[in-house]
Amino acid sequence: MLKSPPPLVSHEQLFAQTAENRFWQSPAEYLALHKPLDDQGRYLHFDQLRHRWRAGLDPRICWSMVKSARLSQQMPILAHDGLHASAGYVLTPVAQKAISLVDRHATLAALEHMTGHIGENAHFHYLLNDLIEDEAISSSQLEGAATTTAVAKDMLKRNRQPRTPDERMIIGNFKLMQFAWEQRSEPLSLALITRLHEVGVSGIDDASYSPGQFRLNDDVVVQDGDGNTVHVPPPARALAARLERLAQWVNLAHHERDGVGYLHPMIKAIALHFAIGYEHPFREGNGRVARALFYWYLFRHDFSAFRYIAISVLLRNAPVKYGKSYLYTETDEMDLTYFIDYQCSVITRALGEFLTLYRQTLTDALRFDHWLEQSSLFDKLSDKQKAILQVALNGIDKEFTAVNVKENLQCSYNTASTALNGLAILGAFEKTKAGREWVFTLRNRTALRDRFDGG
C-alpha cells in the first residue's frame, strides 16, 4: 500500500534547540534536502523518497524540508472550490520540456508545415487517418476492452458493425474522439460533458452506464487490481454545481494573461483531465471522458496534431503508474505536480513517436517516388492508385476495401473501387470476396518489385 506523507514539522519545532530535536544532529544533511527535486531532477512522492534518505535521518523532518521547498515554488491551479481542497503545482523540467515540444511540433501551423513539406501526398493523409484510430482503441483497452488492436482496426477500417460489448466500447470511443474534435469551438459546459459521455458509452450497456447522466449516489469508488479502494469521489450532492464552477474556470483565458495567472493550455488540459477523474461524475466511463476532454481542450487551442497522438497507448502500457499519479496527488494535499509530470512524460514520448513516424514516412515517400519513377508502373497508375500502392508497400495497411479507401482518400466509392480493381488487373493486388465486399491485398513484395522494376 502507498505510504502517505506524515504531518509536517513546524518551523518552530524544526529549529527549536532542544536535546530531543534530531534536526540539530545533522543540520547540513537536512538542509541539503530543502529542494523540490531529488538529485536526479525527479519530483518524487514521500512513498518513493522515504527509501532514499539515509538510515538514521528522521523521515518526518526530511519530508518537511522537501515540502517546504515545494510550497515556496508552488503555483495555484484548478482555482475553484470544486475539489474540496486547494490544488497547486510546480513547473518541473519534465513539464517545461513537454511544453517546449508541444509548442514547436503539435500546433496547427506545425502540422500544416509537415503536410506541406511532405507534399500533397495522399499516403501521409492515409497514415494520419490511421493514427486517429489509435487513441479510441487504446483508451478502450485501458478500461478493459479485450479486443486486440488488429481486430479493432479491421472493424474501424471496414466500417463493420461491432459484435461484442468490447467492440462497442471501441466504436463509442472512436465516436467520442470525433465528437471532441467537432466540438472544439464550444466552451465547456455541463451539457458538453454529459453529451461527451452519452456519445462515448451509448449502446455499450445502458443499464450500467446511464449515458449522459451524472451519478446520483455515493456508491461509486475506484479500486486497484487487488480490489482495494484507492479513491472515493466527492459526494454526489452538489456535483453539478462543482462541475459548473470547473467549467467556468476552464473557460477563462489563462493563456492570454501576463505574469501571475498565466497557464499554458497543455497544463490546463492535464488539470481538466485530473479533475474529471477525481470527481468521477458518471457511474462508468469517467476515464474516457476525462481523456476526451484533455484532447478537446488542446483542439480548442489549435494543438491539432493531437488528433494523431495517442497518449492512451502509453497509459495502457503502464496503468499502475497512471493510477499512482492520481494517488500521489490526492494523498499529498492535492499537489497536482505528480499527475502533471507523469502526463507530460507520456506526452513527450507520444509526440516523439509521432515525429519519428513522420520522418520515416517522409523517407518512405521519397524512396517510393524514386522506385515508381524507375518502374513500368509510373505512367499506368492514377494518383489514388499510387497512394494505395505506397501504403501497402510500406505496411501501413494490409487489406483494402472500396469503403476504407473512399474514407481515407476522400473520394467517391466508384473512384475507390475503380482504383482497387485497376491495381488488381495490373497484377499488383489480389482480389478476394469477404462477405458482401471485395478485399484487396498486396501481392508478394519481392515478386511485385521484380515484375515492375526497370520497365
Q: Overview of this structure, please?
A:
The chain is mainly alpha-helical and about 450 residues long. Helices cover about 55% and strands about 5% of the residues. The chain has 3 domains: about 10-75, no CATH class; about 120-355, Fido-like domain (Fic-like fold, Orthogonal Bundle), CATH 1.10.3290; about 375-450, Winged helix-like DNA-binding domain superfamily/Winged helix DNA-binding domain (Arc Repressor Mutant, subunit A, Orthogonal Bundle), CATH 1.10.10.10. It has 21 helices and 7 strands. It starts with 10 loop residues before the first helix and ends with a helix.
Please give a quick description of this structure.
This protein is mostly helical and 455 residues long. It is built from 21 helices and seven strands.
Query: Could you tell me the radius of gyration in angstroms?
Result: 26 Å
Number of strands: 7
CATH top level label of the largest domain? Mainly Alpha
**What does the overall shape look like?**
elongated
Number of helices: 21
Structural class by helix and strand composition: mainly alpha
Q: List low-pLDDT spans.
A: none
Order of helices and strands: HHHHEEHHHHHHHEEHHHHHHHEHHEEH
**Main sheet specs:** 3 strands, antiparallel
Mean pLDDT: 85
Query: If you consult CATH, what is the topology of the largest domain?
Result: Fic-like fold
Helical coverage, percent range: 55-70%
List the domain count as a whole number.
3
Q: Which CATH-level-2 architecture of the largest domain?
A: Orthogonal Bundle
The CATH H-level homologous superfamily of the largest domain: Fido-like domain
The largest sheet has its strands arranged as 5-7-6
